[in-house]
């Protein structure tokens, strides 16, 4: 199976590289040595407002987006947020302010799914950008990691489709990827289907470089990789800003 997984991941990585605009993306999986979970998150943008961003790591391990040039920031509502936060042994990554929704729910004894039930896609008609979210909770023995996508039903804003993917075990050297868009367009077409298998590496910088190199050079903005040690909970974060 390892060879088959490798071939599938290689094909999917090639599709990512040939896609001019997958939008924002999340990959969650297990390093090849099997000791750490990895979370990859990237942002892309076509407008000046979207491209005017960087990732900033905080001492508490959180990561936030920030305007590179505050004077050029026109609308912070959908572009300034925390993509990465953690509470206890639960490590959250999302493409918007639903990070805070999940954080608050988990901190008060709720669940990932309950939190996202209160949210929908982003209010940016006509794209209705999906909200993508992921979770690694070391205290959950029944699930290695989770991914979710909230989106309209083929652009129908009267319907919200809520997809949750639970992975009981990680596959050493691989992760699963979900993106906001299937590709470029007007309006932008939402991601379709199940998260796709992608490769991961033991070296955090190698993982970051692998994905950064496969994102469209004009549209990529920032990328981060966070690893979480399964045994100790120790984390490491690597950030790349354009």
Could you list some keywords that capture this structure?
19% helix; alpha+beta; 242 residues; globular
Description:
The protein is α+β, with helices and mostly antiparallel strands and 242 residues long. The protein is 19% helix and 37% strand. It has helices spanning 2-18, 48-51, 98-107, 112-117, 204-213; strands at residues 25-30, 36-44, 53-57, 63-67, 84-87, 90-94, 131-137, 145-153, 156-167, 174-179, 196-199, 220-229, 235-241. The strands form three sheets. It has a six-stranded antiparallel β-sheet with strand order 11-10-1-2-12-13. The chain has a five-stranded antiparallel β-sheet with strand order 5-6-7-8-9. Strands 3-4 form a two-stranded antiparallel ribbon.
Topology at a glance:
Layout: H1 2-18, E1 25-30, E2 36-44, H2 48-51, E3 53-57, E4 63-67, E5 84-87, E6 90-94, H3 98-107, H4 112-117, E7 131-137, E8 145-153, E9 156-167, E10 174-179, E11 196-199, H5 204-213, E12 220-229, E13 235-241
Antiparallel strand pairs: 1-2, 1-10, 2-12, 3-4, 5-6, 6-7, 7-8, 8-9, 10-11, 12-13
Helical stretch count?
5
N-C termini distance: 37 Å
C-alpha geometry: globular
Radius of gyration: 17 Å
Strand content: 35-45%
This entry's quaternary arrangement is single chain
What's the SSE pattern? HEEHEEEEHHEEEEEHEE
Mean residue pLDDT: 95
Look at the helices and sheets and give the structural class: alpha+beta
Low-confidence stretches: none
**Helical fraction:** 10-25%
Largest sheet: 6 strands, antiparallel
Number of strands: 13
Question: Which strand order spans the largest sheet, edge to edge or round the barrel?
Answer: 11-10-1-2-12-13
